[in-house]
Structure formats: C-alpha cells, structure tokens
Amino acid sequence: MENGFFKNIEQKTGVRMTDIMDLVNSLQNADFRDERTVRHIIKRVAALANKPVPGHLEDQIVDSIVKDGNRLDFQTISDMLNKKR
Known about the structure:
By secondary structure, the chain is mostly helical. The chain has one domain (about 1-85). It contains five helices and no strands. InterPro entries: SpoVIF.
C-alpha cells in the first residue's frame, strides 16, 4: 500500500519521492530563525515544484517565517503564492 501511495504522489506532482524525503529530512533540524536557512529552503521547494519565486515574494515569506515568528508550513507558502497570482 505504501509503495502505491508514493507512486501516486510522484505521478501527480512529477517530483520523486526520494527528493521529497530528502527535503523533509533537511527540515527536521533546520533553524527557521536563520534567514539564510529559510531562503535556502524556499529555493529548494521552488526548484522541486518547478515554480519560480520572485524576489519580493521570497522576501515576504522569509519575513513571515523569520521576523514574524510564523511556522514554516506548506499551507502558508501556498497561500502566499496563490495570493500573488
């Protein structure tokens, strides 16, 4: 069952499960108060999703996470991306 679930995600997103798991593992010990770390993560997610993130949007996401103390979650990023379209 688990293998089929991952295959389904890969087919729908076009992203290999190993890449997603590598990203998830890198997030476990990440310091989200560090601006450079957060920018690196945003760039990785954008590359995996094959979606460019304009500089002003990256700044907004970084500010939200680092300066405002918001948690990094995909819903927050998704909401910001959808708002700017």
